[in-house]
Every structure is written in C-alpha cells, then in structure tokens.
Amino acid sequence: MPKLIIDDIPVEVPPGTSVLEAARSVGITIPHFCYHPALAIAAACRLCAVKLLDGPVKGIQMSCSLPAQDGMVVSTTDPDALKMRSLVIEWLMLNHPHDCPVCDEGGECLLQDFTIAGGHSRRRYVGKKRTFQNQYLGERIHHEMNRCIECYRCVRFYQEYAGGTDFGVTGSAGRVYFGRFAEGALESPFSGNLVDICPTGVFTDKTGRFRARYWDYEFAPAVCQHCSVGCNTSPQNFQRELIKIVARRNDQVNGWFICDRGRFDKEYLNSPQRPRDPEIGGAPGEYRLALEAAANRISEFCLQNGAASLAFVGSGRLSLEGCLVLAELARVVGAPFCYFTESAAAQGSLAAVRLLNEQNAARVRDIEKAECIALFELDLMEEGAMLSLAIRKASLAGAQVFRVGGAREGEKHPLPFRYQEVATVDEVPFEGGSKGVVICGAGGKSPELLSYLASSGAKLVMLQPGPNAFGAALVSLERKGATLSDLVESGQIKAVVCFEADLPPWLLERVEVLACADWKRGGLTEKASVLLPTTTWVESNGTSINYEGRAQRFLRSRPAGLPLKGLDPKYYSSETEAVALHPPRVHRNYIPGGAEREAWRVMADLMLELGGEPVNEPLTGRWGKLRDLDPEGEGVRIYDLVSAQDLS
Amino acid sequence: MISEELKKSLAERVAGAITPREATVDVMKELQAHYGWLTDEAVGEAASLLGLSPLQVEELATFYEMIYRRPVGKKVIHVCDSISCWCADCDGIIAHLKKRLGVELGGTTADGMYTLLPCACMGRCGDSPAMSVGGTPYGHLTPHLVDEILEKERRA
Amino acid sequence: MDLPLFRHNRRDRSVAFKEYRSEGGFEALKRAITGMTPAEVQQTVIDSGLRGRGGAGFPTGKKWSFVPRDLPGPRWIICNCDEMEPGTYKDRVLLEHNPYSLIEGMTLACYALGVRHGFIFIRKGYEQAAENLARAIDEAKKEGFLGERILGSEHSIDIDLHLSAGRYICGEETALINALEGKRPNPRQKPPFPAVKGLWAGPTVVNNVETLANIPGIVVRGAAWFKGLSMNPEGAGSKLFCVSGSVKDRACVELPIGIPLADIIDGPCGGMRLGKRFKACIPGGASTQFLTAEHLKVPMDYDPVAKAGSRLGSGGIIVFDQDHCLVEATLNLITFFARESCGWCTPCREGLPYVKEILARIEAGYGKEDDIDILREHIKYLNYSFCALAPGAMAPLDGLLRHFEDEVREHIVKKKCPLKK
Ligand SMILES: Cc1cc2nc3c(=O)[nH]c(=O)nc-3n(C[C@H](O)[C@H](O)[C@H](O)COP(=O)(O)O)c2cc1C
Ligand code: SF4
Ligand code: FES
Where is average pLDDT lowest: A439-453, B97-111, C112-126? Predict the structure, then answer.
C-alpha cells in the first residue's frame, strides 16, 4: 500500500489509486473535468495539475493519471500548480459563451465551480470566440456545442462505456465537435446519461429545461420503479412537479448511470389524469367517506358471500411495506390475498426466490467479472437494460456471451456487446460453473426450467416482473399468498379489493371490484365502486427488493398533491368570479389534490375501519431489521434476514 | 453508387486487413477518388464495407486533411503555407492563385475546375514554394510557372 | 568520406534493385540471417550508438531492448514515414532515391526483435516514395530477402505499407499507432510505452525511416565504423540534413554528424542567397528553437545543439535572413501547430490559438507589453500538455523571446512591424 503525503496530510491508498483519488480520500478535491470515476483515464483537460515536491516523480503532474507511489510529496496548492490550473480555466473560457443566465446547467455546472476554484477571473484574450452549429438530437436532449470544453466525457461514455455508435467526436484541433453524423434522435437507450456526465451545459434535459435552478429542487434518494434492477436515482421536483430525474451513484446496483426509461418515463408522475381525489361510485368524495364506503362494501359483501369469496390483490409494484400490510388487512377480514394475478408469473417469481441465495444470486460485480455469460430467453433491454452495461464490461474484458433462444419479439434495442447465438443452454461452455452467469427473466418461466438453469452451477440473474416482485414473492411465501387467477378459475372468488394491482382483461371481467387504490387509472379504477388515490414513489417512503434480493429504501421527495404548474384556477382564484384573478389570490391551508396516501397507509386506515388494530410501523417481525436501512447506502441483500426455507 | 467491381476490390482490401478498421483510410481515399469528394453516400458505403457506423467513419474522415467532406472542383490545388514556403514567399503565390482563379482560399472556380486550399508542409521545403494540383507536386513556383501549370493541368 | 545512406543514389532516378545488390545491398541481411543471432544484431545496434533520427534522438538499441522477449502474441515494427514537420524532407529524398536500405534495415530490425510483420506508415503526398517501396518489397520478396522463409532460413518477415491522409500528429508514435489501427489519431497515454503495449496491444517499436536505413551499414561494417563516421567524438554516424530558406542551394545532404552548422550552410548549400545575411535558423524542423549567428560553430550533434539551447531534431534546417521578420515567422509556425493540434488536450487545442492571436496582433502593430508575459506563461505551461506537440510548438517561440525579444518589443513600441516596408 503506497504511502504518500498530500498537502502535509499522510495518505495510504491501495496500489493503483491515482493521486487525484488519494487526495479525494482525505477530503481534498483537485479540480478536474475529463476525469470521471466510471470512465477510463483520458488526462485530456489538464486541469488536475498538482506539483510533486519530492519522491519518485517531481514537478507538475496530472493527478488523475498519476498512480500514487511510496514517498510522494504532493502539493495541490503550490503556486506553479495553481498557475497551471488557472491557465487551463482561462483556455477553456476563451471560447466559452458567457451565457450562464440562460443555461440550464447553471448552479450545477462544473465549469462554473472550477472557474472560481481555478482562480481565473479576468479576461485577457481579445480574439473572437469560435462558434458551432447545434444538432437536433431528438426530443429529450438539447445540444449546445458552444458550451463544450472538450473533456471527451460524452463520447467516452457513449461509445466506450455504453456501446453506442451513432454519436461521437469529429474534426480535429479547435474544431472538434461532439455530435451525430446527421441530425436525429440519439439511438442509445442510455443517451440521457450525457446530461449527467457533461460537466457543462452542452447536453441538457430537454424535457425539463428552463423550469428551475438546482437550488430550487426538492431532492431525495429514490429507487427507480421501472424494472427489477432498482437503479438509484434522484428526482428533482419543483413546486410538486417532477422536472428531471438524474442518476444517483450506487456501485452495487447501477454505478453512476441509469437507462433512458428510468430518466425520461416520468410524465405519469405529473399527469393531470392521475387520481387525486377519492371517488365513490364515480363521484369525487372525501377520503374519510370513501374509506367508510369501501369498508361498508367489504363488510356487506362478506356478509352475503363469505370472506373466502373476496380477494385482496397487490402486485410487484407495491412496496415491501404495502405487501406486508396487505397480508394483515386480509387477515383481519379473513380473506385470501394475492401479489400475483397470473399463475405463470407467480410460479416463476416464487421459484426464483426459492432458488436464489447469497452464494448463487449474481451481483453486478459478478456479471462484470464473469468469463462466460448466457442470456436465456429474455428481452434484456426491456427487462433490465442497465445490466447490459455490466455485460458489456465483461465482454470487453474478454468474456464470452451467448444468447440462448434468439431475440424476443418486439425487441427495440440491439444489445450493446458482442455475443453468439446458441439454440440451447447446454451449448454454453460454462467451465465448472465458476465465473459463469446465467441471466433470464423469471416471470412466466416454469420452476423446472429455472431449476434446470440453476443447475449449471453458474451464478444467476433472474429478473422479476416488477420493481418489488422479489419482495412480493418473499412475502407471498411467508404469509402464504395465493394467485388470483387460480382462485378465480376455481370459482372461489367473486370480488376483489386491489392495491396498485394490474388485472388482465379476462380476469377483470370475471370479478366485481369493491375498492381499488392506485396512483394510475386503468380498467380496475374504472370498474371499482370506491377509488382511493395512492402516492407514487416520489411522494412515498418505502422499500423495494430488486432482482438480486437487495432491499433498498427510497424517500419521499415532494408532498402529495397537484403540481403548481397547470393548476386549475379554481384553486387559487375567487370561487365566486368566473375568471382567474391575478392578484388577489385565495389562500388555502391545504394542498390541492393532496388526498393521496401511501398504499400501506390506505390499507392501515381500511383495517382500522374494519375493526383491526392500528398499524404504525409496517416493517415488523423479521422485516423489522430493515427499518434502519440507509437510503443513501448500497442497500442490503436480504438472504441473512430471510431464507426461502424459513419462509415456506 | 459505386460499381460492383470497386465494391469487390474494397471488400477485398478490408478482408485483407488485420482488423477492418485498419483499412478505413484506404477505403475513404478510394471512394473519394471515385466521387471526387467523400460524399455522404460514400461515408455510408465506407461504413457498411468496414462494419462501422457512418458516424464512426465521419470521426476519421473529418480528422484528415486530405479527405474532403465537401464538394471540390475537378482538381484540388493545395498550396503549402508552412515555414519553408513562407521563406520563399508562398504568400505571393497564394495571392497570385487567388487572383488568377478568382476565388478565396477554400473556394472553387466558377467552371468547377479547381478548388484552392492551403495545406501543411508538403515535405518539399527544398523546392519551396510548393503546391500540388490534383495530387501532382510542383515546386520552385513563380507566378509565371503557376500560370503554366494551371493551363497544363486544365488541359490534362 | 563514407556516405552509407546516399552512396547508392543516382542523379535523377531511384537506384535499381540490381544496382543496389551489386553495390553490397542485402549483404547485411544475408550476414545476419546466416551468421548472427537476433541478440547479436541488437547488440551491434546498441554498440553503434545510433540515435533515433525522427526527432527525439532516443538511442535505438536501447529502445529495442524495452521490448519484452517472452510475451506471447504478435509484436510489431513500424517505420515512421509521416514526415510532416515543416522544414523536413529528408525521408522523402532518401526513399525517392533508394527504398532498399529501408527495406533491408527494417527486415534486420524485425529479425533482431523476432517480429513477423512490419508496417511502413507513409504520409499523404509521398506517393513516389510509396511506389518505390512497394516495388522494393516485391523485388526483395522475389529474391528471397523478404516474405516466407527468408534466404531459406526458418524466418519469415512481411512488410506492408499504410498510406495516411495527412495530419502532422500522425507522426507522434502513439497517435501513429492509433491511426494505423484505424482509430482517431490522438496520442495515447504513456505508460504503457509502445515497446510493451502498442499496436493492437502488442509490443511495438516505432522508428524513423533514416534510423532504420542506417541498420544495414551498422550490421555489415560494425559499430566502430559507424561511430567513426561522426565528426563529434561523442556522436555516431552520418546524418541527413535538409536545408531550406535563404541559402543559395537548398539541398538534402548526408554529412558526418557533428559537422558545424556553418559548414553545412557554406558547404553544400553554397552560402546565403545573393545579398542576404544570416539572421537565424531553425536547426531541426519546426519544433526546435532558433539558433543565431553566434551558434554557427555549433557541431550538429544531439548534445551540442541541446547545449546551445535547441535540438538537432529531424535535421531540417530553415535559414532566415536579415529581411525576415521573426515574429511573423513564429506566427507562421504557431499557425501550423494550432491547425495540426489533434484537439485532445486543453493547453494545445486552446493555448496555441491564443498564442497565435497574440503574435498576430503584435505583428499587426496592436501588441501590448503584457502580451510578452502571456507568451512566456505559454512557453512554460504548454509543457504540461498531453503529448510533445505543444511543447514542440513553443520551442520557436521560446527561441524568439530568448534571442529576439528586442525585435518583438520593437513591434509593440513602434506599433508596426519594423521589417515591413
Ligand atoms: C507531434 C510529433 C510529430 C512527430 N512526427 C514525426 C515524424 O513525422 N517522423 C518521425 O520519424 N518521427 C516523428 N515524431 C517522433 C516520433 O514520435 C518517434 O519518436 C519517432 O518516430 C521514433 O523514431 P526514432 O527513434 O527512430 O527517431 C513526432 C513526434 C511528435 C511529438
Ligand atoms: S499536445 Fe494535446 S491536443 Fe496537442 S497534439 Fe498532443 S495530445 Fe493533441
Ligand atoms: S482530470 Fe486530469 S487531465 Fe483532466
């Protein structure tokens, strides 16, 4: 372990650590642009200059590309280093437009920060600035080339890291240009990361431009709810509106990046169509009344038909908290409960949860370090796009990748790595299983097939059909949940009460919907006699368990209620005037449309209404250990906590 | 469009390379010779021959001085403006060329015959001032000699 | 005097294979393959004291010795015939007269280093040289000096040409490797050095044309003979000097290394052009510092020229006379470098246009006193760029401010170029 001294502070770091990272480990940030922990070293911007006063190397050096060595004495504040850094900033500012006031990066711009940190404040250059033409890059990303400082982060990410081929760098000298061959939408399903990785405002999120500054946003650590990978994100809300979603680093799950679905599929969160007020028989009503109505409907139904013909239905969309309270609610009524509506999905998910354990459930690192990877009958880019980047890393390091059973129907994106097609998994040359990984989708696969895949001895990735389907399957095992389609087909069930569930049309046809709680509309909410609006993940605290059994906590980043933007004038204007007045306004002490609650709270309220005990803490029993889960941490794999054997 | 024959010979060049990318410059040059400049169509054709995306070909095409991504005249005149030629008054030669051709640097003559471009040192410093016309090098230029060369090349 | 490089030259044409052969050509290769181990060939090159002729002057044998002997997988030799440094045209002249020494030298280098496959990277504009080389490769193959089982031995060596499309940075060895691989020719981070991890990640030696063309002579006549060619006791070999600018006869000549600068100008170049006085010269291609009249006695060898504050570089001597404005000359040089920057690192991509803008202003009479400080900052801090292009670009500017600061000041004070009529 090399020992060195940085600004008089002794530092010891693992071999191979750069001086820049060593400094960072003791809290010294050396300014940098091209350096990014996820990308290969470029040493292009030359901003991270430090001076080595003594030891094996001397003089000005670039700290990002200099491995820490024993005996180095590093100064980050030496006048020579400071001068170099201020010159680098001056060079970068020669051509940079002074358009900070109208730049969406303002406030979160590395160039702003390091211009100050670099000590450059007076313009000496009197020449003309060079200018570029921007390109249309689609509806999601705005291009503003004049702001470019040529750190090459974008191409290094787009081509090397993410395997994209339609965006890159052209030209040479002062004319290098970062863009596409011709205008058009970026093709990579990871293109949105350009927004995060660009240190200035060349790439900004078109879907949320010019709405607010960084310091205006409400943030909280969140976990993406689009698929079972569970990437960490940071939603940026302003006045109850989700403006942008950015990636949040978690080395165990998604590294620094997220896919475009996680970033851009967000309109539903602000949607005016979202259920905001409870509805009784289709008409808006107060929460209390709706709750009572639901309880009455349930009681009456049970009196007439018996509790056994009613099912409480959840889903893999429900948080772990929701799953647990759902079972309690059903117990109070004495009715069966389900987390899965169709048996194929249920069997696959349950089987996967039974099969996986601490040893065989592959972590992202296992994928990255694998030597042989088999993709078994799945649409990876749909079911777990981010894993393709881990596979790409392995592939670039020499791993063999096999796709078994060909492409799935409707695949939209090519796989960003090289692979061979094989017909059956037996053709995959797993050498004794070590360093092998099988990746499959769990939902809809037979338990036998999954056991067969597990028998290869390779580590396993079994992607789940929902962000918390893994958690739902565990709870289903623990509390003996049923599958809705089985119950309906056996003729037992006549009615359902649903919480954030999705019923296929054929099932929906065959049951009465007494009540439904959800944050989105659909066949179920239409049919329900009582509708209770729930909050989405941005307005909820909760826990979800990803495909590898990692429990992660997400926090509420904004209160429930309608976004200020687009708010109906009736909420802020005089109720007696026909048109909106500006000013005066009518002030209220409640948030319009703020009746949504977390699903588990709706369940708890309903339980109380039905004569059950109050629930203050949904995580009880063995799950209680997850109460202290750090939302900023890496999450925990649950195998210590619960093993499928204990549960069933 | 390129002929099947040219396509075949380029495909052979690519197949003979240690990795297809190695053949990129050769392929671009051949296509440029065919079209006069590296057209968008040519970039697409190069890409498919090399197993790259058009953008990846563009990344290389725009790097090199002698690959033209814009239309040029029948013959490109490259006048060297580096130091040895400067010593030999290349500025005078460039001024003369501009006047004679009626174009600025970067321009193409009205008849589409010549495009005038400055270029980096041609490795003919001993024969400075130097230029090349359609790939043929000329040295020891004088305004008079330039006129003769232009006439000769126009006819050739 | 012995001229190992030019001794086969014919006046206006390339020497023919038969002629080269009958004048002792390919004898070195024959001797090596039949009577020397690869290690012995390498040792002879080490002993000869040959230094790289591409500009940096790194000892060739030492460079070869960095190649790990026991790494599996292919290894490569690349001959650098990019030659885009302004003022340099020696490799072209050499190859237009005689492509065989290079082919023989390269084959010897391949033999010494256990290389199966070599590339010659040729710049755009050197089509004649490329044609000669292609012919020479064919002929050598036909005669069994190249290709499968050379001279009946178990050694097989191939040489291929790679024709480039024009960019100075392609001459930088790691950028050259990228260019050859068909990637954007940005330089690569060092370490790892090419000798360990270069072309297609294999060990790779990059040598200049003239360097490799010297190998046959060294192998056949021995290290001591090679050392003896030099006029400087510490030096070794002859050197191609290519002269341009204000001399009477601008020529590319082979002369003993260590010959005084004045003897080149006044000897084969016939002195200054009519009516011109020597003011300064750039001794080793555009990326070297100006030398002045006081340096005319400097022996043209690596160390003495370095001691005089410049570099022997490529041997491209550009001579300026009393009528040349050196601010304008430097502006021309910087313009070249700014245009040829690869655009990878900030100091070069942005700093060079900055310097260019300042010099252009000074030359046009709008210079300010502070400008000189800014120029000095660039001379110092452009050293910390990614590759050697930007520091090279600063060399003439450094020379300008070192020897001709008065001339620069005069521009600023008089608000015009004092040499413009
Ligand atoms: C910007 C730049 C351009 C260069 N151009 C050439 C060149 O055209 N020819 C050459 O032989 N070396 C050139 N070099 C030097 C090469 O990097 C390398 O040192 C040389 O080819 C090694 O050969 P040698 O050891 O035989 O001199 C250049 C270096 C730099 C930094
Ligand atoms: S100094 Fe930097 S920008 Fe200039 S050529 Fe070298 S790597 Fe490219
Ligand atoms: S961060 Fe080190 S050179 Fe850019």
Answer: A439-453
